[in-house]
């Protein structure tokens, strides 16, 4: 009775992701990137900008965030263009975080590296051109541009690419694990099939050989003198039945056998010499011709293969050349053994060949261990010759395949290392230049106090430092005299802090017309009064 199983219910379709997920994420990302642009001006980290400039920056950031998923390169290019427009050296508190985040998204989402590299080169060229055109001090500004491009753009981009490749490598690892599981299942199934084929081949060789010997003995009994006609007919029928059973066994086992089966059979429990002696006792005209040195040790792969070759050759001789003399010669070598089985022309009616699959299996088994196999006509008869090495040659050790994306990950790691080294050199050079310019633009307070209004520039220049301040605090200084040219000098050589500045203004005749103390950022305090007291 058949039992019907109910059809499995279809798996429910996965619920679609909520539509507002991406817009909400984009809005939150835009808010995070816009926060520095809104607060940097309010807390004094940037020079005050017009409202339309702030609004334009916020709109550009919104467009960059909207394009970050589908067009990450264009998104980064918009933000980089905004940064170059705002600050020639590309570094600004307002848009620096956005530049780094979008560079990270560019490395994470863009599959190719060349467009991003070209974009970085274009940003560097645009920043360099702008520094040359409107920069106050090109050398330090170019160093700042290069450092910002490395640490604010290239480093996040490389980090994004490494992240992308790590994710791809993890996915490839899971796919490889699944594929290996499938291959393991197939290997196990194939192992079962090969074991079945091995057993079938063992049955074919062993039973076929025994049936051939039975047929051989029945044939000898058939022609024995003094045998009654009924017994002679029974012996003929026995011989024909044994030959027919051998053919049937060959056809049935041939269905189960694999053509590439190289596995040697299990030891039959007897040596080659014992096999030949048993065949001779059954009435086969076989001659044993061993040659020194001794044959291979029993139980080894070489001995089992030689036994298999001789057994198959004797079986074929009985089936296809009954009555023909057979010679089995075994020759030992330092590194292996050679067996040769030669039979003469048939003296009786032989069975027709049914495919020769046994010889094909022997060829596969012998060549699999590094040996040599030959089988073919020899004069009026047939010869089977096999050389089997004493030890199976080890398979060449192949180098395991490289992990997916290993070379790409190595390139990214090398790129990170090279960028880090270049960044350290540039930062060190930039700080060295900063320290040099700041310490060589210091005007001693006593020298400032000694300057008198109306003094010519020729008298003032000898007491002035080598350099003037390149980034003067104009926003904290009073309005200069009309038509005058002003220079700024530091009142102290302290680095990385805000210090007081001295401003000296000269008119068209190069005479000192104004001298002022510009206080440091924050409360002016007592320092300004001290400088004014010195001036008096």
3D architecture notes:
The protein has three domains: 22-183, no CATH class; 195-389, Heat Shock Protein 90, CATH 3.30.565; 445-535, no CATH class. Helix 4 runs parallel beside helix 6 (138-222). Helix content is 56%, strand content 11%. Residues 1-21, 258-268, 351-355 and 395-404 have low confidence and may be disordered. By secondary structure, it is α+β, with helices and mostly antiparallel strands. It starts with 20 loop residues before the first helix and ends with a helix. A hairpin with a 5-residue loop joins strand 7 (501-506) and strand 8. It has 14 helices and eight strands. A five-stranded mixed sheet has the order 1-2-3-5-4, covered by helices on one side. It is rod-shaped and about 155 Å long.
Number of helices: 14
Shape: rod-shaped
SSE string, helices as H and strands as E: HHHHHHHHEHEEHEEHHHEEEH
Count of distinct strands:
8
Class from secondary-structure proportions: alpha+beta
User: What integer value in Å does the Rg equal?
Assistant: 48 Å
CATH topology of the largest domain: Heat Shock Protein 90
Low-confidence stretches: 1-21, 258-268, 351-355, 395-404
Helix content: 55-70%
The spatial strand order of the largest sheet comes to 1-2-3-5-4
By CATH reckoning, the class of the largest domain would read Alpha Beta
Number of domains: 3
Q: What is the residue-averaged pLDDT?
A: 76
Strand residue percentage: 5-15%
Taking the alpha carbons of the first and last residues, their distance comes to 121 Å
Instruction: Report the biggest beta sheet as strand number plus sense, adding barrel if it closes.
Output: 5 strands, mixed
């Amino acid at each position: 009775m058949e039992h019907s199983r109910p059809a499995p219910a279809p798996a429910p379709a996965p619920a679609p992701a909520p539509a507002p997920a991406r817009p909400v994420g984009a809005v939150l990302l835009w808010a995070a990137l816009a926060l520095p642009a809104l607060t940097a001006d309010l807390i004094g980290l940037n020079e005050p900008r017009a409202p339309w400039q702030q609004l334009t920056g916020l709109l550009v950031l919104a467009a960059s965030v909207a394009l970050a998923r589908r067009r990450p390169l264009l998104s980064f290019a918009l933000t980089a263009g905004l940064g170059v427009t705002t600050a020639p050296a590309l570094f600004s508190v307002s848009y620096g975080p956005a530049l780094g985040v979008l560079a990270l998204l560019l490395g994470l989402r863009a599959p190719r590296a060349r467009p991003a590299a070209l974009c970085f080169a274009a940003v560097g060229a645009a920043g360099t051109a702008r520094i040359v055109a409107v920069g106050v001090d090109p050398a330090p500004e170019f160093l700042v541009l290069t450092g910002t491009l490395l640490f604010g753009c290239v480093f996040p981009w490389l980090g994004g690419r490494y992240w992308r490749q790590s994710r791809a490598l993890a996915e490839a690892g899971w796919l490889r694990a699944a594929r290996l599981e499938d291959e393991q299942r197939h290997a196990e199934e194939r192992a079962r099939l090969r074991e079945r084929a091995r057993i079938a081949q063992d049955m074919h060789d062993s039973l076929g050989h025994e049936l051939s010997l039975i047929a051989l003995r029945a044939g000898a009994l058939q022609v024995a003198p003094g045998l009654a006609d009924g017994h002679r007919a029974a012996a003929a029928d026995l011989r024909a039945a044994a030959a027919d059973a051998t053919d049937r066994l060959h056809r049935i086992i041939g269905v189960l056998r694999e053509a590439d089966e190289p596995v040697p059979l299990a030891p039959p429990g007897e040596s080659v010499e014992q096999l030949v002696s048993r065949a001779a006792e059954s009435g086969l005209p076989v001659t044993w011709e061993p040659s020194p040195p001794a044959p291979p040790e029993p139980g080894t792969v070489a001995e089992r293969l030689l036994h298999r070759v001789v057994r198959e050759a004797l079986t074929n001789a009985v089936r296809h050349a009954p009555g023909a003399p057979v010679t089995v010669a075994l020759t030992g070598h330092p590194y292996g053994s050679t067996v040769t089985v030669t039979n003469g022309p048939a003296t009786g009616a032989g069975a027709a060949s049914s495919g020769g699959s046994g010889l094909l299996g022997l060829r596969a088994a012998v060549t699999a261990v590094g040996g040599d196999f030959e089988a073919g006509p020899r004069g009026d008869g047939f010869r089977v010759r096999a050389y089997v090495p004493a030890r199976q040659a080890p398979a060449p050790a192949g180098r395991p395949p490289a992990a997916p994306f290993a070379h790409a990950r190595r390139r990214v790691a090398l790129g990170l290392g090279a960028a880090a080294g270049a960044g350290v050199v540039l930062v060190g050079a930039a700080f060295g230049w900063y320290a040099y310019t700041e310490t060589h633009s210091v005007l001693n307070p006593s020298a400032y106090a000694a300057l008198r209004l109306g003094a010519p520039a020729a008298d003032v220049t000898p007491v002035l430092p080598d350099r003037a301040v390149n980034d003067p605090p104009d926003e904290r200084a009073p309005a200069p005299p009309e038509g005058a040219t002003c220079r700024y000098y530091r009142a102290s050589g302290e680095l990385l802090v805000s210090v007081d500045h001295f401003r000296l203004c000269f008119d068209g005749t190069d005479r000192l017309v104004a001298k002022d103390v510009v206080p440091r950022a924050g409360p002016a305090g007592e320092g300004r009064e001290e400088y004014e007291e010195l001036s008096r």
